[in-house]
Design goal:
The structure holds 2 protein chains of 2 kinds. Chain A has one domain (about 5-165): Nuclear Transport Factor 2, Chain: A (Roll). The longest helix of chain A has 20 residues, at about 20-40. Chain A is α+β, with helices and mostly antiparallel strands. Chain A contains 4 helices and 6 strands. In chain A, strand 3 (about 100-115) and strand 4 form a beta hairpin. Chain A has helices at about 5-10, 20-40, 45, 80-90; strands at about 50-60, 70-75, 100-115, 120-130, 135-150, 155-165. In chain A, strands 2-1-6-5-4-3 form a 6-stranded mixed beta sheet. Chain B is α+β, with helices and mostly antiparallel strands. Helices cover about 30% and strands about 25% of the residues of chain B. In chain B, the strands form 5 sheets. In chain B, strands 13, 14, 15, 16, 17, 18, 19, 20, 22 and 23 form a 10-stranded antiparallel beta sheet that branches. In chain B, a hairpin with a 5-residue loop joins strand 15 and strand 16 (about 270-275). The two termini of chain B are about 25 Å apart. Classes of the chains: A alpha+beta, B alpha+beta. The interface of A and B includes residues 69, 85, 167 and 172 of A.
Chain lengths: ~180, ~450
């Protein structure tokens, strides 16, 4: 199991940690900015959100503890994210024409754990509307971020996304991250 | 409208198909009756119900089914319906009901073979026509249930070809799925992915063996994967082999697909020869081959591994990729709506790296975030939109028509072609089934 996945397993996913207003605001700002990056399609900024070995993860089952070695809806390192960006912005990415548009709302931000080195585990809820194929699709669920504190601010070591309808059925989920 | 057999037959010509075959609701109902509720339709793999009491839901045409395993290890297929007031018995996709299936409405309890066990306050039935041993009060069984190498099927026709006769040349898919396991057994990996296509079920099957589409449809993905691979190599590292499944779309290009032949077997089944033979000489593959030699002996192992397949279509409901242990089954929901269940199997006795490689394919190609099938689903949706319009009556299947050849009752595509043979072949089978009044082949 990867270090970041282990951190999430070891942390109490119902815990509430008392944090300073500054920490709460800094964490919220980070989450809100991540949502804005998706909505505004700022892909260089997206890649910069993650640590070098960071992962974006959407499990296929609720009881999954790690994305490694099991089926997932998303399990992406920076290489696969770069691939996805190149593919989705290619002029012949047919299903991206017309381009979809996203609108995220992130809320219920609860800092779960703060490590001595300043790393944070934070959980939140999101709602995302996607305009796609001339219709609006809705995705909603839980985020759980393991954020590393670095000189450049927080970086995502692992983002777990539990879609409320993870078992489907759906037309494929978004081609972008949710 | 009511369709006569003559009218149905006119929809399928040797090299073109009328759009009504894809969009007409009455044709769809007849397909359910004469194809999906007549032929052998896939239920699931035995490892989906590993333990006594396990159950899994399935669908045969419009009929909700349930596969169970009883205390003796026997597998049963039953209609998912309570004979009391008609409620569906199980609603979760899967679960365990070791003590039997219980209806949520009035607590009628059923054994895992579908027999009624008991219910509360049974004295209310004293002196009535109710009899606990009367099959009308048991869960109904489909007329025919059988399996081939652990893959279970049901047919709702009382009579017809045996399962093995129906599968004919497509048995190869199941043999390959199982034989490629050094442990001579396979099992499903977790639950399947369930995805809904906004298009007719035949469009999905046709796409699987249409070798002139990948270089076009998946160009963007091939290009992106090739670029990332070369970036990784620039840093002196080796990209994961699974990325090659995507970069192949660019590497093979458009014309490269002429190297891969297609075959049409009796009963509508068809195959596309593999471009993913997966016999590279990296240490992981070598280790796997070694295990295969140990399990089967060199000669037999080589015979198994030499079979080079990409897709096998088992008409009318399966698309199987044996070298990558993937299986997709279709559950039509309407003329313009099709559910797919997408499964991945683990080869018992194989080294972990072989599982990881196939898992990479399952993720990159077949998961709900797929960068490959997303463009397929989009094209199929566009086809459905166009076919529902009055912009034209016919679908063209002319590519290499007249150049295919037949040997021992099996059709082969013309050499060095991207022949639309499999598409023509399936539609000819469709015409046979659709005009046989529910008698199958």
């Amino acid at each position: 199991m990867g270090e970041a996945a282990l951190k999430l397993v070891e942390s109490d996913r119902f815990a509430l940690t008392e944090v300073s207003v500054e920490t709460q605001l800094a964490v919220e700002r980070f989450l809100f900015r991540q949502a804005e990056i998706l909505d505004e399609a700022e892909w260089d900024d997206w890649l910069a959100l993650f640590t070098e070995d960071g992962h974006y993860w959407m499990p296929a089952r609720e009881d999954q503890e790690d994305g490694e070695g099991v089926p997932n809806i998303f399990w992406e390192n920076l290489d696969i994210m770069r691939m996805r960006i190149r593919r989705n912005t290619h002029p012949h990415a047919h299903s991206q024409s017309p381009h979809n548009r996203l609108c995220h709302v992130v809320s219920n931000v609860i800092v779960e754990k703060v490590e001595a080195n300043g790393d944070v585990i934070v959980r939140s809820r999101f709602h995302c509307a996607e305009y796609f194929r001339y219709q609006v699709r809705n995705f909603t669920g839980k985020y759980r971020h393991y954020l590393k504190k670095t000189p450049d601010g927080y970086k995502i070591a692992l983002q777990r996304v539990d879609l409320v309808n993870r078992e489907g059925p759906y037309d494929y989920v978004m081609q972008w991250w949710v | 409208m009511t369709w006569s057999n003559d009218e149905i037959a006119k929809l399928v010509e040797p090299d073109r198909v009328h759009r009504k075959a894809y969009v007409d609701p009455d044709i769809f109902d007849l397909e359910m009756e004469r194809i999906f509720e007549t032929l052998w339709v896939y239920i699931g793999h035995e490892s989906q119900v590993k333990n006594p009491g396990d159950y899994y839901l399935a669908q045969v045409g419009r009929q909700p089914m349930i596969m169970t395993r009883d205390a003796n290890g026997e597998i049963h297929v039953l209609y998912n319906r309570c004979p009391h007031r008609g409620a569906k018995l199980c609603t979760a996709h899967s679960g365990n009901a070791r003590r039997g299936l219980r209806c949520s409405y009035h607590a009628w309890m059923f054994h895992l073979d579908g027999k009624l066990n008991n219910m509360p306050a049974m004295q209310g039935y004293d002196g009535t026509n109710f009899d606990i041993n009367d099959p009308q009060f048991h869960m109904k069984k489909p007329p025919r249930v059988d399996n081939y190498r652990g893959f279970w099927f049901a047919s709702l026709a009382e009579e017809g070809q045996s399962l093995e006769d129906h599968l004919a040349g497509s048995k190869l898919a199941f043999d390959q799925l199982v034989d490629r396991a050094p442990g001579k057994e396979i099992e499903v990996v977790g639950d399947c992915f369930r995805m809904v296509q906004q298009s007719n079920w035949k469009i999905f099957l046709e796409n699987q063996l249409d070798s002139s589409h990948p270089g076009v449809t998946h160009e963007s993905t091939g290009h992106a994967a090739l670029t990332v691979e070369s970036d990784i190599k620039k840093h002196g590292e080796e990209p994961p082999m699974a990325y090659g499944f995507l970069s192949d779309f660019k590497r093979i290009g458009f014309d490269g697909w002429t190297k891969f032949g297609t075959v049409g077997y009796p009963n509508g089944h068809a195959t596309l020869e593999g471009y993913m033979g997966l016999r590279p000489t990296d240490p992981d593959t070598n280790e796997y081959v070694k295990r295969m030699y140990e399990a089967y002996g060199e000669e037999k192992a080589e015979e198994i591994l030499a079979v080079d397949l990409h897709h096998v279509l088992v008409y009318p409901c399966l698309s199987i990729q044996p070298p990558l242990q993937q299986l997709r089954t279709i559950r039509p929901l309407g003329p313009n709506k099709t559910m797919t269940e997408i499964w991945h199997f683990r080869l018992k006795g194989a080294n972990e790296a072989i599982y990881q490689r196939a898992l990479g394919y399952y993720y990159l190609v077949n998961s709900p975030s797929t960068m490959v099938n997303a463009d397929d689903l989009f094209n199929w949706w566009k086809c459905q939109q166009g076919l529902e319009s009055d912009g034209g009556d016919w679908v063209s299947l002319h590519r290499d028509y007249g150049r295919d050849y037949q040997e021992d009752g099996v059709w082969h595509s013309a050499p060095d072609s991207m022949s639309e043979l499999p598409l023509r072949h399936m539609m000819q089978a469709w015409k046979t089934y659709m005009t046989a009044n529910g008698k199958g082949a």
